[in-house]
Write a structure and sequence with these properties.
The chain is mainly alpha-helical. The protein is 34% helix and 6% strand. The protein is built from five helices and two strands. It has a two-stranded antiparallel ribbon with strand order 1-2. Helix 1 packs parallel to helix 2 and helix 4 packs antiparallel against helix 5. The two termini are 29 Å apart.
Length: 207
């Protein structure tokens, strides 16, 4: 079911926690894909006002002040990532089930007020001349239960992943975790996060 929320509520993401826990408890096997609101611009709308720890923070409206935008972004990260995952991991641990969570992002950030590669101050993304850092995104994995811990151990043992993997390895990894044939997964979808990478592997992007 999809719904449109006109006014952003910084608690929206936290409502997911109970939904995920209920779904996991109700179903023997499940797969859930979540589009999280996260710490997207405007950053001030991604955390409650009483969680504004770093000040002065930029308001929801665009301001061309790098320090204020960094403060607002750090507030958003502290609330909508750190606090969210603290509560999510506690909730998933309480189910005592085998669970795998992979978290990533669609793009990195250019802070409003920060010049791009041509020295022009622009909005966070979605324009030409973006610096390469915008292609750097988080890729986090969490595991619960014996199955989840085994999944994480296989990732930890692959010391070629650090700063050297891509979104394209997530899908084949999940297929393997679901029990699909490694031969077919490798043939049709490529290498997984469990496969070793050559140093400085080429990085590919879709326009």
């Amino acid at each position: 079911m999809f719904s449109y929320v006109e006014k952003i509520n910084p608690a929206n993401d936290f409502d997911l926690i109970n939904i995920l826990r209920q779904r996991i408890n109700d179903q023997e096997i499940s797969f859930t894909y979540v589009v999280k609101m996260g710490s997207h611009f405007p950053y001030a709308e991604r955390y409650p006002k009483n969680q504004e720890i770093f000040r002065p923070a930029a308001p929801p409206e665009f301001v061309n002040d790098l320090a204020m935008n960094v403060n607002a972004y750090d507030n958003a990260l502290r609330w909508n990532c750190d606090e969210f995952f603290s509560r999510l991991t506690a909730a998933l641990e309480s189910t005592h089930k085998n669970i795998i969570v992979i978290y990533t992002s669609d793009h990195g950030q250019v802070m409003p007020g920060q010049p791009d590669v041509q020295g022009v101050v622009r909005m966070p993304h979605g324009h030409p001349h973006l610096p390469p850092i915008v292609a750097n995104v988080p890729l986090l994995a969490f595991g619960f239960g014996m199955g989840g811990r085994d999944f994480l151990q296989r990732l930890r043992s692959n010391n070629t992943l650090f700063n050297n993997c891509s979104h394209f390895r997530i899908f084949p990894t999940l297929l393997l975790a679901m029990g699909y044939s490694p031969e077919n997964v490798g043939k049709y979808y490529g290498n997984s996060l469990w496969d070793r990478l050559e140093p400085d592997s080429p990085r590919f992007y879709i326009a």
